[in-house]
Amino acid sequence: MKNEHKPIIGITMGDPASIGPEIAVKALLNPVMYDICRPILVGDARVFEDITSRLKLNAVIHPVASVQDAKFRLGTIDVYDLANVDLATLRFGEISAMAGEAAFASVKTVIDLALADEIDATVTGPINKKSINEAGHHFAGHTEIYAHFTNTKKYGMLLVEDNLKVIHVSTHVSLRQACDLVKKDRILEVIELLHNGLISLGETNLKLGVAGLNPHAGDSGLFGTEDDEEILPAVEEARRRGFDVEGPVPADTLFSKAATGYYGGVVAMYHDQGHIPFKLTGFQWNAAKQQMDSVKGVNITMGLPIIRTSVDHGTAFEIAGKGVASPDAMVLAIESAVQLAKNRRKSLLPA
């Protein structure tokens, strides 16, 4: 494949006090990344230079003022330089408005580049929500930032790791509020987002499972009425519209079946219902070393006019700057972005 045919992938710095810059650089030391795409980091070039020098990573940081100036060459890492971090005051693992502002600016910039068709897809590093909010940007997370700046009303968080593909009815709200958000129209909306997401990923198993909210999916109203009054009607309507979908299925049964590939994707009712089984699958904790050996899993925002994938782990402030962070999830996020960009390009070709 000629270089110009490879998708251009914009990758945000994440919080500069986190493992974000480290995993971004480590991921781009993998030759496969340059075989499949043209990656460009977005953030402060000095932050990447510092982490590269500090950890003795074999790469040269190449600051650029435009995407057109990038070299896209293994060993030379292009950075769309925002020059907005004060290295003298930056401290690994510390929450600060300065770090939050820098992280937010990298996200906003990569969104703008994608909307302007200067890049084909975006990948985000981890941010700290408190730092973002201390900087004056009152968003619950990346998903909400993307939805706001792309003027997207219907969207969902899709997690992908091997056989397990999970989308959520609600995410960053209290558990009490999450129960109130279990409504037929929203569930139906998310079923459609999941179906379309699987197609965009090139998946062929389109059988969907919808989790119940209550224990035993309510057990015919004994443990709550939401399963019968909101979830079941949504599933029945989805079937009428042609979707291959089952539910509500008790969550303790649903995810064990989904992990084997029985379902192509599943709908979780709230954040932890989907994230806990997902991270049990993708995260490998080393008890002896007291650290993660591997952190896998990709977060994809469905419903946007642009492509956004992300690592599905946090800032890991406790290990920032120590050189032990795994780039596995970042590599997977970039690979997913490339696949989505290729499939989108195919869908735009004339029949």
From TrEMBL:
<dbReference type="GO" id="GO:0046872">
    <property type="term" value="F:metal ion binding"/>
</dbReference>
<dbReference type="Pfam" id="PF04166">
    <property type="entry name" value="PdxA"/>
</dbReference>
<protein>
    <submittedName>
        <fullName>4-hydroxythreonine-4-phosphate dehydrogenase PdxA</fullName>
        <ecNumber>1.1.1.262</ecNumber>
    </submittedName>
</protein>
<keyword id="KW-0479">Metal-binding</keyword>
<dbReference type="InterPro" id="IPR005255">
    <property type="entry name" value="PdxA_fam"/>
</dbReference>
<dbReference type="GO" id="GO:0050570">
    <property type="term" value="F:4-hydroxythreonine-4-phosphate dehydrogenase activity"/>
</dbReference>
<dbReference type="GO" id="GO:0051287">
    <property type="term" value="F:NAD binding"/>
</dbReference>
<keyword id="KW-0560">Oxidoreductase</keyword>
<keyword id="KW-0520">NAD</keyword>
